[in-house]
Amino acid sequence: MNTQTLQSYCSIICILFSIVLIAIPIQSSNTFHYVTIDVHEVRYLDPIENMDAFFTFTLNINDEWTETVTWNDFPYVLEPEFSRTIYLSEDEKNVTINMILEVTDGSGTYLCDLTGSNQERSSATMVYDMNTGHWTGDDYRGDPSGYGRLNGCDDGSIYESEYDSELWFSITQYDPDGDGIPTWVEENIYGTDPYADNRGEDIDSDGVPIEWEWKWGYDPFVWEDHENLDPDGDSLNNIEEYLVSSFRSDPFRKDIFLELDWMDEGPNNEKSMFPDLSIQLLKNPFHRRNYVFHVDTGFLGGGDLIPFDESVDSNDLLNIYNEFFMNNGTNAWKRGIFHYGIYVYDCFPKGYAFSGDVFPHWGYHPGTNGFMISSKRMERNGRLFQPSLEYFYAAATMHEMGHNFGFRWGDPYGVDAQLGKYPWQPMYYVYRNYKSIMNYRYTYKIFDYSDGSNGFLDNDDWGTLDLSYFEYP
Questions:
Q1: Which DSSP letter does residue 17 get?
Q2: CATH code of the domain containing 76
Q3: CB 87 within 8 A of CB 27
Q4: Whether residue 162 has pLDDT greater than 60
Q5: How far is CA 102 from the centre of its chain?
Q6: Which pLDDT score, from 0 to 100, does residue 267 have?
C-alpha cells in the first residue's frame, strides 16, 4: 500500500469517526442534573369486582418525555419496581411531573382517581424544585394523605365507586454524599459539605437528625420540642415518627402501627398465621380515610414464632407479651408506637383485647394495646361460613383493634353486645343501626367501622376513634 492510499484510508476513518461523535449525545454539564421518580406501591381502594383487571401507569415529564407501563398484579401492586431517571438541562430548576393511572377490566379502560379533587377522577401533577428538593401541587409536604402518597378518596368518596386508588412515590435528584439533602440546600442554606454524608447528625440536639428535619420542614440548627410535637394528632410525637421512618411514616398524616407474631406449627400440623391478603384487606378501610396502617411482620422485629402451646391462658399471654413484644424490656420504646397482635392456635376467650403492662390485663380500659386471636377459631369459621379465611382473620383483627382505639363493651351502645349476635336475640334488632364491625351482628358481615349516618343508636366510630387510647393512662 503506497503512502497516498494510506492517507486516503486515514481520511475516511477520521470522517467516519467524526460522524459517530456527532451522533452520540454528549452529557457533560447535565450529567449530574436529573430527577429520579420511583413508584413504591399502588393500591386499588374501591370494591373489587374483576380480579382479572390490570393497571396502566403513564409518567409525563415537562410535557416532553412520556413512558407507559402495565402492571398485571391486580388489585394490589406491592413494590412494582418502577424507577426512571430523566436528565435535564442546567437551566431547568422546576420540573413538572404528571402521573396517570388507569384500570382496565372486561368493560373497558377507566381513569383512576389519584387526588380526590373536585369530585372528579383525576391524574396527579407535581412541580419539583431542583434547588430545595421538595415538590408542590397535587401532593405536598403537609398534605393530609401524606407526602409522597396520592389518595383518590381525599374528596370523601369513601363509599362511591370512582376507581379510587392509592399511589406511593418519591422524587429524588443527584446527591453526591447520599444524605438525601440537595447540594443547593447544603451550599446555600445549611453551609454543610455537600460531599460529606450528614445523616444521623443532630446538630441542635433535639432528638431528630438533620436529614429528617430537612425533609419535613424543620430547622436542623434550632432546637425544637420534638418530644411533644405531634402535628397530625396520631399520638406519635416527632421523635417516634422518626424512629419508624423506614415505614414511610409522616408527621403530618395519621399513622397506625401494629406488630404481629404467631405461634409455631404444632406436632399435628396445627398452624397459627396471618395471611398476606388479610393485611391488605385490613389496610383499605383505614387508607381510604388517610389513617395509614403499617403492619410489622418482620421488618422491626415482628413475625416472631412463638413456641407452640395447645391452649394459651392469660398468664401465658403476659409471658408472650414481655418476651416477644417488649423483648424483656429492651424494646420498651415500641410500647408507645406499636399495637401488638398475637395469633395462637387456641385460647380462652377466643379473641380479646388486652394490655400486658397495665392492670387489669383484659381490655376495655385505657392502655389496652394488644389482642390475641385463636387461629383454630378462624379455621373453623373459614370452613363453616361464606367469607374467605383471609377475610375472617382481617375482620377479627379490625374488631380487636377497635378496642385499642377506645371502643369498649357497651360504650358506645352495641359494642360487643352478647345478646345481639343472632336474629332470636332482642339486641339484634335494637342495635341494628349500629353498622360497625364492633357490633357482633356485623363483625363478619361489614368490614368497616360505622360513620354515624344510620339513625337511632348508631355511632360515628370514625369520628370518635381515639389513637391515644393504647398509650399508658
A1: H
A2: 2.60.40.150
A3: yes
A4: yes
A5: 21
A6: 92
Distances (CA, A) of 351 to 75, 312, 370, 420: 29, 11, 11, 17
Looking at the domain assignment, is residue 178 inside a domain? Answer: no
Domain end (from 387, 412, 437):
412
Asked whether residue 63 is assigned to any structural domain, the reply reads yes
Q: Does pLDDT of 29 surpass 60?
A: no
Please state whether the peptide bond connecting residue 412 to the residue before it is cis, i.e. omega within 30 degrees of 0.
yes
- Taking the C-alpha atoms of residue 466 and residue 451, their distance in angstroms, rounded to an integer, is 14
Q: Using alpha carbons, select from 444, 280, 265 the residue that is nearest to residue 351.
A: 444
Instruction: Judge whether 456 lies within some domain.
Output: no
Is the same domain home to 161 and 294?
no
User: How much is the average pLDDT of 117-125?
Assistant: 81
Q: Of 447, 437, 328, whose CA–CA distance to 390 is shortest?
A: 447
In a domain, 204, yes or no: no
What is the predicted pLDDT for the residue at 273?
81
Grid cell of 279 as nine digits: 393485611
Predicted confidence (pLDDT) at residue 7 exceeds the cutoff of 90: no
**Strand 135-137 to strand 124-129: parallel, antiparallel, or no bridges (unpaired)?**
antiparallel
What's the rounded Cα separation, in Å, for the pair 220 and 238?
13
Structural domains of the chain, count: 2
**pLDDT tens sequence across 434-464:** 999 999 999 999 999 999 999 999 999 999 9
Q: What residues have CB less than 8 Å from 33, skipping those under 6 apart?
A: 87, 88, 89, 90, 92, 130, 173, 174
pTM, two decimals, is: 0.91
pLDDT digits (tens, 9 = 90+) for 372-414: 999 988 888 777 777 788 999 999 999 999 999 999 999 999 9
Segments forming the whole domain that contains residue 353: 254-412
Bridge partner residues of 343 (DSSP): 262, 373
The angle subtended at Cα 398 by Cα 394 and Cα 399, nearest 5°, is 120
Q: 386: which residues sit within 8 A by CB, 6+ positions away?
A: none
Residues 153, 276: one domain? no
Residues 168, 294 within the same domain: no
Cα–Cα distance between 363 and 344 in angstroms, integer?
18
- Cα–Cα distances in Å, from 306 out to 82, 317, 393, 444? 37, 11, 18, 27
Which CATH number goes with the domain that contains 387? 3.40.390
CA separation for the pair 126, 98 (Å, rounded): 6
Grid coordinates standing for 368? 389496652
Cα–chain center distance at 329: 27
